[in-house]
Design brief:
Blueprint (H helix, E strand, L loop, with lengths): L6 E5 L6 H10 L3 E6 L12 E4 L4 H8 L4 E4 L9 H11 L3 E3 L10 H6 L2 H18 L4 E6 L4 H7 L4 E2 L4 E5 L6 E3 L25 H5 L4 H10 L8 E4 L3 E3 L1 H12 L7 E5 L1 H13 L4 H12 L16 H4 L6 H10 L8
Keywords: NADP, Oxidoreductase
Protein name: NmrA-like domain-containing protein
InterPro entries: NAD(P)-bd_dom_sf (IPR036291), NmrA-like (IPR008030), NmrA/Isoflavone_reductase-like (IPR051609), PCBER-like (IPR045312)
């Protein structure tokens, strides 16, 4: 049996996903270190160790000393910097790297061709494999989640403006895609004053019951079982849905027949072409058009990966929930922000 992971480092913990992962790791009683740049203003509970510095090789090697696993949640502009982090982690003796994947299925060649930024993620995994070839103690797990349901619905990325009740459906909204969501947030959960020394190899019952991000909970569950998904991809799913199904859930949650919505239909192909033109001109909004256009295109772009991929929710003790229930909860509160 592999030695349990105890000391975990998170790089990029101040973003959209990072706080949920931090919260889950604290609830699972890992000893947690946050690696941040000197300019970072993000705050965390007092039990978290924070190391700030420029991401130079020397700083990263020093920061990763004594760390069992490193979770990277860096944004798109910093995806390439992960290679230096991987090199430093290997030199420091880290045993598991979780790269900043957390999105579409980057093993799908059509997805890689459609959305250029996905190639940066795929290149990081290639680099990890290359480094691991000469550092056999280094392993990796890449986590595929699809879009985060509550975050995307709130910000209008699914084509629904919740304030003005304007809906844009692409190809009548029938393209299927797999997504994860963030369970509803209750009062802030206080982490233990100090980490528990022994990290048991069973998923803590508290983790199954507390209100945590599906992805955050999965990261904690994964690192609680060192041999699971070693050197492989982990696919997560809350549900597979479509714009049409989301629209139906929105109407049911608000008790309307949709007559108060202004609906416009567009083609996925036109959406993708517009996105390519924007991106070619350096307009990063075009990247979002490509990402969500590929979602609405469904199986053509591999966005419904739950159809054909082995989903890891059950093995890790992560529950799946229904679209209607989650949609209602999204409308009733803010579920994509963690407050300590």
């Amino acid at each position: 049996m592999s030695t349990p992971f105890k000391n975990i480092a998170v790089v990029g913990a101040g973003g959209n996903l990072g706080p949920f992962i931090v919260r889950s790791l604290l609830l699972s009683n890992f000893a947690l270190t946050i690696i941040a740049r000197p300019t970072s203003t993000s705050t965390f509970p007092p039990s978290v160790r924070i190391l700030k510095g420029e991401y130079t090789p020397d700083f990263l090697v020093s920061a990763f000393k004594g760390i069992d696993a490193v979770v990277l949640t860096v944004g798109g502009a910093a995806l390439g910097e992960q290679k230096g982090m991987v090199d430093a982690a290997a030199k420091a003796g880290v045993r598991r790297i979780v790269p900043s994947e957390f999105g579409s299925d980057t093993t799908n060649p059509v997805a890689l061709q459609t959305v250029p930024v996905y190639n940066a993620k795929a290149d990081v995994v290639k680099h990890i494999k290359s480094v691991a070839a000469t550092h056999p103690n280094l392993t990796w797990t890449s986590i595929i989640t699809g879009p985060f349901y509550d975050w995307c619905l709130k910000l209008g990325f699914y084509g629904f403006d919740l304030t003005t009740h304007k809906a844009t459906l692409y190809d009548n909204g029938h393209g299927k895609f797999t997504t994860v969501h963030t369970p509803p947030r209750s009062a802030p959960i206080q982490p233990p004053a100090s980490p528990i020394k022994e990290n048991k190899q069973t998923l803590p019952s508290k983790l199954k019951q507390t209100t945590l991000s599906t992805t955050g909970a999965a990261v904690a569950a994964l690192l609680s079982h060192p041999t699971k998904y070693e050197n492989s991809y982990l696919y997560l799913s809350s549900f597979t849905t479509s714009q049409a199904e989301i629209f139906a859930a929105l109407k049911k949650a608000t008790g309307t027949n949709g007559s108060d919505w202004i609906v416009e239909n567009k083609s996925v192909e036109g959406y993708m072409q517009a996105g390519n033109k924007k991106f070619a001109k350096g307009d990063m909004h075009g990247l979002y058009d490509l990402i969500f256009g590929s979602m609405f295109g469904g199986s053509k772009y591999g966005s419904d990966y739950a159809n054909g991929r082995e989903i890891g929710n059950k093995e890790l003790g992560i529950e799946e929930e229904g679209l209607e229930k989650v949609t209602k909860e999204v409308l009733e509160g803010d579920r994509h922000v963690v407050k300590w």
